[in-house]
Structures are given as C-alpha cells and as structure tokens.
Amino acid sequence: MGLKQILQVVRAKGLSFWIILIIGIWFLSSDIMHHRYMNDEPPNRGVIGHDIRGYYGYLPAVFIYGDYRLDFIGKKGFKNENRFLCLTLEDGQRLIQYTSGLSILYAPFFLTAHALAPALGETRDGYNWVYQFFLVMSALFYVLIGLVFLRKLLLKYFNDLIAGVVLILVTLGTNLFYYTVYEGPMSHSYSFTLIAIFLYLVDRWYARTTILNTVLLGFIFGMIVLVRPTNVMVVLILILWRIDSWAALQSRIGFLIQKTPLILLMILFFLIPWIPQLLYWKSITGQFFYNSYDKVGSAFYFNAPQTHKMLFSYRKGWFVYTPMMFVAFTGFILLYKKRKDLFFSTIVYMVVMIYLLSSWWAWWFGGGFGSRSMIDTYAVMAFPLAAVIDWLQKHRIGYIRIIGIVVITLLLALQLMQTKQYTKNSIHYVAMDKDAYWHNYFKIKKRGIWHLLSEPDHRLARLGIYYYYDWSADYDAFREIPREKAMQQIREEITEDKKTMRSIHRHAKRHDISAQETIQMVVERIYDQKTSRKNL
Length: 536
What we know:
This protein is an all-alpha fold.
C-alpha cells in the first residue's frame, strides 16, 4: 500500500478515530510504566485495595473459595490480609457492602487471569499480579469502548474535529485519566462507559424504537444502577432526550405512554442484571432489597447540600481539580442558544446529580483525586464542552478564538500537572486547604504541606455535622488543659460557628433530641479526637 492509499485510509477513518487510538496507546503505556499491579504483597496491594476489595470480592469468593457467604473468613488457615471488605451483621453473617455490578464487568478479565495464572508461574489466589494486571486492563478496555460510543454520538451532532478535541479534553483534561490508569478498577471509569453507551442507545431508541434497542437500553440501564446506584438519575436523560419545549415534553409523555409494552420490557431487562444481587441479599439478610450503607451510618442530607464546597472547595472541589469541567459548564449557555434539543436533558440531569452528590454525607467522597464521583457524568458533559469548541471554531473574531484555544490548552496542562502532583503526594487525598493548594501550585516535587492540611471528622460528617482538625495544631498543649476547660473552649468554638450550629439543630430535629444534647455529643467527640491525636 502506497503513501497515497495510506492517507486515504487515514482520512476515511476520521481524526476522532485516530485520536481514540492514540489515547489508547497513551493509556496503555502509562499503565505499563506505572505498573502498580506488580505490588501484590499483602496487605497493601497496588490495585486491589480500599473500595476495590468490596467491588471485586464476589469473584474470588465464588470462583476460588466457593462460598459467597464468606464463612471461610476467620477459620483456621485463612488470613484475610485485606482481601475482602465486608460488613458483619447482627446475626454474625458477613455481607459484601457494595453491589456486584463491577464484579460482573471484571469477570471476563478475572477468568482470563485465573486461566493464565499457572502458566505464568502464579497461584490461583485471585490477588497476585496477574489478577491485578487484568483488572487494570479491564478499566482501559471499558474506557476505550466508552470513547467509541461517545464518538459515534458526538459525530451525529458535531463535526469530526470537534468530536476529536472533545475526546482529548474529556480523557486527558479531567481526572478520568487518573481513574483509568492509576486507580482504574474504581467504579468511575466503568460508569463513564456505561453512561456513554446509554446515551448512544437512548438516541438510537428514539430513532428506531425496536425490541432490540429496548432490550439493550434496559440492560445497560440496569448495569449502570447496579455499578453505582446514584446513577439511576440517568433516567432523566431517557425521558427528556432532545426535548426543546413544553409542547415537546407533553408529546414525549404521550409517546412513552403509547410505548407502555416496550417500557415494561425495558424494566424487565433492567432487572435481569440485578437478579444475582437480589438473590444474594435475600440469602444473607432475608430481604430482596437491603441498604448496606445504612448499616454503616451513611446518609444523604437533602436539606443541607454542600454544593458550593463540592464545586469550589480546595479540599476536593470539582472545578478546582478539574477546571476543564468549568469550561464545559459554561457550554450550557451555548447549548441553550444553539442546540436546545441537547440542552434541557443534559442540564436537568447535571443539576440533579450535583444536588444529589453534594447531599451525600461525605460530599468529598472519601480519598481520591478531585471530585471523583463526577467522572460518571463526563459523557453527558461532553455535549456542552463540544458546544464551546464549536463556538470557538466558528467565531468570526480571530483573537477570541486564539484566546479560547490558549485557555483550554493551559487548563489541559494544569490538569496533567495536578494529576502528576497527586501521584507524588503534593496534593493530599482528603485534607487539602487553600494554603496547601497554593503552596504547591504547579510544583511537582513534594514541598512539605502537611502543616497546612485539615482533616474532616468522618463520624460527625455521617451525622451531617462538619468539623475539621487542623494538622498544625499543638495537640500536646491541648492535652495539658484541664478537661472541663478544654471542653468549654470547644463548646465556644462550635457555638460561634453559624454553619456548625445550623447542622447541629438539623441533627437534633431529625432525631427528636435537644440541641444541647447534640452540642454535648459533638463537644465530647471533638475532645476525644483532639486528645488522642499526635502532633506533626
């Protein structure tokens, strides 16, 4: 094949196709260079740790130990060594807290690793480097599938150049890159892909409302919710897709009523991936539906969402650690002006998701890089981002286009820099504050920010009360203060903080207790924590 023929093939595939290929090579090389999967010594494995133990636990429990009840834990000869993350119920039975959606997605890669482990000189224990490597590859595989479907949908509404640029910005200009390479087996990259496929199927379902499209849409929707239940809100996209007026909404409601048999079929296939989960819950708890998060005191506080903190906080703010998404958010204005059919469904979904996620007791969503819970929404955010790129491409004033390109390029560089900073511990996973952020701004090398950090009290946060411990405080000096005097200091600090007092009054009202009882509980908790903390 000559050069001319090669160029013809390149042009025929389109720029956005080759961009996905380049992204895949970049991500794969990053995975190989990073090689966290080679750290397979218990208890601190490179990949299967923290929440991933809960997502993954179904597979070794069933295929290696043959016991989904986890009765082998604690028996003679078995050492857990951080293999399984589970709850112990009141009757002594063990329950994996997380739903099984990710285990289903991991399964082909787990089974491949299970088959190859002996040939590679490893035991079939479910946790050595072979299993970890294939888990990392599963994240890369699913993200590339998601990009393929996102590209297909973007090309329907925007040109190839815009689609290609958006794919670059969504992958490399956000924390999706980190959560594909460094912590790939976390749920977010998989949810990104499932929602990208869902969007594609929704668009196709309204174009061709066939039985096959209905079945596929229902099944993917079921998987989305099984992987991460809060993503049930994508149903708003299904209902509102391409609605651009009140009349169109009324027409859509009539259409959905008319398609009731297909809607019921969709619900049936939504439930199919849930069947193993429902049977599992029934077997362990006696209930088909079981809220395992309630068991550990996790809750939503819908009357006190921490929206501003979730978006702008130096601790984990979405727009601080993923500034490209702030640019994307401005694109909703452009969608409203130019593509109302894409505006209403996406803006309603995003507003609801921001409200929902900022109402979670841990609005920072545990340890992680930036607002990781928002990664799930990036396929939706690709559309307002595409509107921004489209506006820049078509803008008549050249210097505005140049400024826009420069700003987006700088934000892309900032995102890659912050990703590097996070991997080098220059950005803390939960305790960042304003001074710490600017102390290390655009610096890769670790520069001693520990004295600038402040850590949330997780137990109080579960109650909807937010208090932060200053890591630079002199706790030795605090311990020298007589107990009653120290507690009085804490009480005065709390009562002078209007936000804390509002959260205390809300907690008291929810539990039908007095505000004074709640204040006393908070004071005692903070005192106990401060007197047990170590100085830096």
